[in-house]
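step=predict obj=Lrp/AsnC family transcriptional regulator n=33
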Amino acid sequence: MITAIVLIKTSVDRIPEIAEAIAALDSVSEVFS
């Protein structure tokens, strides 16, 4: 299994929306915000 840490720059009010979109990807198992 490959592990990756990805940093995303976004506005504070979009964090929940972006986190949900990333979590919905098939190969993503965890999202931290």
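step=describe
The chain has a mean pLDDT of 94.
step=end
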